[in-house]
Structures are given as C-alpha cells and as structure tokens.
Predict the 3D structure of the following.
Amino acid sequence: MAAVPTYKAAQLTAGPELESATDTSAIIRWTTINPGGTVLHYGVVHYGTDAKNLTQVAQSPNRRSPSHPDMIFRVRIMRLNSNTTYYYKVESTGATGARDGVSSSVKTFKTQ
C-alpha cells in the first residue's frame, strides 16, 4: 500500500484579491504559507454569479520552491460575461488533488 503524502496545513497570508479584470476575464491572486508535499500545486477558484452557488471552477498549476516560505497563486478565469458581478472563493491542492487546507471566505469582483 502506497503512503499517502502529507501536507502542512497551508494558511492564507495575503488575498485572495482581484489582480485584474476585463469584460470577459479576471485574474485572482493569493499567497499562502508554503505547504510542502508535491512540487506541483494547483490554485483553484470556485466562482459564479450567486454567492451560494459557486459551481464553476478555474485552476492553474504552480510549482513549489522548497527554498521560499510562501507560494503565490494566480488563476485566470475566462469566458465571463461583461458588466457582471461574480462571487468566488479559493483553495489550493497538491498534484494528487489533496487539499492544502486553504479555503477563503466568499469574495466578489465585477467585470468591465
């Protein structure tokens, strides 16, 4: 039986916040404590136009550097509607899909 990789419970140290938005896309950025574990991690954004129904998902791969105490995640969300308010929350996972322990409260942004 293969050993299950363990991760430190990562914590948000900055964000999540809207880095930029156009009429059809947005970039969400946040920083966590370096969670260890696999080199590859994913930033995951759950979003939608209803704060109680965040069924859409965008994710982006990120490589962990063992020499840095933090990880910065940036996730681009595409195919959004213009002049629309979106709600979102973020999390991060290791390459195996195991959660790092990061989960934000629900935030909001508006496209142009």
